[in-house]
């Protein structure tokens, strides 16, 4: 008989619903057996969309963890409880796929890594979805093959479509700020393309509030550019924005000594172009989900396979802490206006080492 | 309890394997319960990939049809037996998803339609995969919305990557020829975008053997251009090729009185571009599967949903006969060198009606 | 002292003005010394824009030919007098750059070639502007270098922006029809890329009047597709249109046994792209002038250099007759609805030679 | 009789030759009457290419200034003498078109502005060629029209093709550094798109030597990213590189509150694309001249017209000083590793004003 991974989903908000449905319908080797949410509205949704397919529902996450036979948990709740729920799952001997970031705090993020390191038989992964996107993988493979020589400069941006509802202002209170919330993906890409051991030498950043001045109440901005220098002579620079007019514009370029590989330089929704009296135009993805939906499906399937076959995960959990560390430093550099310096051990120092 | 469609797969060759796996793994509302193939090698594959998941295997298609509870069949065998197997399934009260074409013969294709019309409670669909592709659907929607005015000219091509193995020569013996095998998709698109009732007025075609002269033994060509005139003042023209260097190039443009909508004008494999001393380049899909994989998944899911919910299929079976009729006429026009004319009832006439 | 070519311009209409200014301002080695037009309005324009720069003006073309020191003539008058004026210039010992087509009649076109062949010391060229376009030249060079193997199929289109003024109806009376007026460029490209000696085997064509039914009064159409078969196993197919919504769409693809080279697959006005809530869009050239302005400048300069240095012209005059022959055959095939066949000597025959 | 501007060219190196030929051959309203160079090799070239067309040659710039009737000078000599020659020309009552930068020193640049301000009847322009490029102008017009709302973030890069000869090392000694030499164009674009009065608040920058470590001898780098914050809530960030594999990659994006306008997001040499077994590829410009040749021609023509018609120049000379000021600050920030802050009057301050 075929073995399938019994998994539960923690959180049924925007991302939780997606992860739950991915494990239910698009991950053949997994079986969604449980889901939890403290929110009655979310549970109501689950009664229609999950329960009829054999998924047990819980209001209490801790109760779910006790379900007989549960092998793994996907943590897709609010960022504030990611770490706590991940650690509880680890302690309950469950494999964990945790949505990014582990936490907006470096220390809390580290605590998840510490918990996981005590249970090396468990698979614990932070869901950096772009690592599962076919285009990013192809780009990475091309780099690894040597097609661009030594990668030296990385430009990457995570730019959301303008949401005029003001959602981002409330969201900013808990998001960790634009560099931790958006640029975390770009930072993770830098660590993937430059190597997980890349040590930062300095960060500087500037930000503005072009459309949403109220973001300043939460020390946040709606457009920000960050500049990261690594000790081995590499540069990464990031742009994050909340005000794209056309849609989601997540672009990455890696410039090497012999070539350049780029992903999504001109965003596009599909393969259609329309010609009319305004010219020739293409629509673009409206959200990160439009852009990365299939990456999330691949993530669910590969996490499942890694657990079932006890194989190595595609990347290590430690990087998730390093990404938050860089994101938080950029956020601080932006808010304080100061450039921040590090020594080769990762400790802060007062000034640049030339 | 949730109802799932019990379906069997006839044929486990190149396409059969894909359909079987799609219904097994990527169609949550369907349950692949059976598969048949007369080929021992194919059955061996199925023992590894299907049987462990509860799929019963048959050497004899007729036996499979008798399986208790079987509700539907996907016919993905050799083209030569499509019609026979589809009709048997219909007569056995099964819903049918039949790979294109129903047959390379107009009459045989019509016999499937006739069989289906006697069982209006059954869902019988010919698998024109492009109808399920998101880009084609978006293009069709844009046209329907009026963005291009009245559609007037359609250009469409199905161009395969050069396969230097000579496979296409052997294949040509049974394929019906390049217009029936390749352009059938483009013809179906013309019927979709111009309307299923479009009546052909004339067809002309030319073909060459640029890389594979042996194709002439089977009255076939490796590059062909066909020109179809419709009675309501519309034109469709098609290009089919077996010798693309870069990969699969399936492009379609619909030109209307107020605009143009185009699909896949410049093919692309993914969102990656590579810059090196040769310039900036993108890879393109190597096969129709690279290009249309997700369309086949959607096809399986929508066919399943239509059966389970007893809803209308997205398009009628009759069009599949009309597509073969036009494809066969183009093939004949190419081989004979003659332009072929029709009256408004679809009968052949000797000369153009001006 | 530096020698400059003394040239006169016949005709000061839309194209005449452009040629006159090109020779006046953008052809350093030429000196525009004369211009003629029977039209008082055009002469009035010339008094402001040409006369102050030393250009003598004539109402009578024959008078201009007598101007002391005149060495060459650019014939940019109405198509109906192209041939007559070109022949007169040749007979008056002038070098000639004649706008396309030499004539809408094959016989009249041939008469220019005959006149020129009696004066082999004169440079007589028909202005197929695309031969001077850098992109077409680069494409041709890539083909010649062997990058696409043996060129086998050529697709080319000349598609004008919709002009709702009805201009094209009046124009159609003298234009020779859409295949002679528009597709002549694409036909010339086929002769350039496939070789000047390519012999046609058959032509077929269909046309519609999607926006301008009155064109039928002049046996013309607003959208037409033509299919040309050559004796050496090559195919060219052409699309011409008068109703593009976005602007001028002149696209060409040459498919070879080892690759494809394409020009202007997605038209663009410049290097700008605009992102707004409709997506990402680019404007495209509105007219052939927007697209080919620099090609006309190169044409003027290269014609001038060929005369001054007595070097071979970039292509032979004979091709201009062959292009009209093919264009006229396509027009006839479209209007009569009949496929037209030729033997290898270029004579018409009744049916296809298989 | 038609008046033409009598102009002399100072310097006949790489850029001098180009300016000389542009004024000689491609600027109908100008007359190149003189050219000077201290270099015998350059003068030898001029004897062949300029003298036969009536251009007087000088070894001594001061002598050229005395030529009877000379009205204007294009200063295209080595950067080190730009300012001196420009000031001498101004004092000799000549109009001046001076290649960028006026000087690598802010003070010296300012001295040209001071000299010019004493002669308001003279036209003195610094040649920021991108201001004359049709794509940049179209982008600026689209912004001015309001299509992107309020411009807020500008990304711009000037990236040269890798020159493995080591030329850039020697060049770096006098170039002012990568930010003054390359990014000066991007900085000028920021001043153009954000407004000439934009006041900088802070600059930070990092640079690496990925291919040419010897550049450090001259305090320069081969890849650098700079970040500029303006007082009115705008951000500009720049990337400059000497190691592009495919060619010249000069890209600019202006992100506004309602849209984005971008120039040259994917560079291209022309309209050709080649498909082969590597995919679909386009070549790109190899040098800034490939990309901006026509902009230099327009520059020459518009400067000429402004002088002849005594009209305002398209932009003010003062901006050239501001651009050098920002470029030099970026260079200093890169070399020192320090972030540099300014108050609203442009004075340096110790720390960020929040």
Describe the structure.
4 copies of one chain form a homotetramer. The first copy, chain A, is of the alpha/beta class and 354 residues long. Chain A has 2 domains: 5-127, Rossmann fold, CATH 3.40.50; 131-291 and 322-349, Dihydrodipicolinate Reductase, domain 2 (2-Layer Sandwich), CATH 3.30.360. The first copy, chain A, contains 11 helices and 16 strands. Chain A has helices at residues 14-25, 40-49, 61-65, 79-91, 106-117, 134-144, 167-175, 178-181, 183-194, 288-308, 318-336, and strands at 5-10, 30-36, 56-58, 72-75, 95-99, 124-127, 151-161, 200-208, 223-230, 234-244, 251-256, 260-263, 272-276, 279-282, 340-342, 348-349. In chain A, the strands form 3 sheets. Chain A has an 8-stranded mixed beta sheet, with helices on one face. In chain A, strands 3-2-1-4-5-6 form a 6-stranded parallel beta sheet, with helices on both faces. In chain A, β2, α2 and β3 form a beta-alpha-beta unit. Chain A is globular, with a radius of gyration of 21 Å. Chains B and C meet through β7, β8, β9 and β10 of B and β7, β8, β9 and β10 of C. β14 of chain A pairs antiparallel with β14 of chain C. Chains A, B, C, D: Pfam families: GFO_IDH_MocA (PF01408), GFO_IDH_MocA_C3 (PF22725). Chains A, B, C, D: One of its GO terms (molecular function) is nucleotide binding. Chains A, B, C, D: Residues 6-125 form the Gfo/Idh/MocA-like oxidoreductase N-terminal domain. Chains A, B, C, D: Belongs to the Gfo/Idh/MocA family.
